[in-house]
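Backbone shape codes:
===
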Amino acid sequence: MTTSRMRAEIGEQPAALRRTLDALLPRVPDLAALARGTRQVLFIARGSSDNAAVYGRYLAETRTGRLGTLAAPSVATAYRTRLDLSGVLAVAISQSGKTEEIVQTLDWAADCGASTVAVTNGAGSPLAESAQVALVTEAGDELAVPATKTYTTQLAALAVLALGLGADVPRDDLRRVPDEIADLIARAEESAALPEIVEGLAGVQGVVVSGRGLAFGTALELALKIKEACYLHAMGLSYADLLHGPIAVVDDRTPALLVAAGDGPTLAGTIALADRVRGARARAFAVGGGTGLAAASDAALPGPDLPEWVAPLGLIVPGQLLVERLARRLGVDPDVPRGLNKVTQTD
């Protein structure tokens, strides 16, 4: 079978991440200077970029001591409300840097007193030109509609942002990411779990995708990819929210796909959720979570050997491989899902 463009771009991620880290790590002093005096981070994004922003929010709050929030762009573009954003660092994230709503919202934030950062793969784009500091990722051209390398390089940029905000974490963790992802791609494709999970999802109409904390954005992104590339109903939830009621939808026709880093305070809860799912006679599939989550699940794809704060950069990759393989199994071209374009404009 001919290799899809999406699969080729998944394989380009190690090189894209090396280029991005080489370009952005020297910008840490610029970010530190811009962020001096700020107390809160406001993330502005849509789609996959919004899922990256969830990771950025957790990094800001768990590693830098700053409150992180997700913006509602309609406050700026539809309601045209003016807020006091002094002391706020506004971070707009857009793969292309051309989505007008995101550019307008960043301009609005600046006009309301915020300092501004752009994260984009579009050098010279309107978003990059609008920001005081532009973190331009080095993903290269991405031709498949589902974001893969542009998403992971956004996560890398947000990890660099956390360093600029004073996160007390080892930079060497970031430098290990590209090689770890190269190894992870090989391990995931050789895993017997990959075809097993593909077959387990090929016969259902829906799946619940769940993670928590720093892995929550990964769960949301994986659910989005399943919806847009495989046309399945996929519900992305924190496992805390899942246990508050939606757990009732998990049954023998609706499996759960659980994502977790190999360490961290949310791993035990993810393992407990896998036990509960299987106790309800539903299937539990896993991405990451080490041997503990694998033992509690019906089948598990390997996760990255990375500490929790950077694990999401690798954790999404087995999920991307799963989505690409599942789309082809369902007879869907993963490169051009129906109804979608590379750049989405919203009002």
In short: Residues 269 and 319 are 20 Å apart (CA to CA).
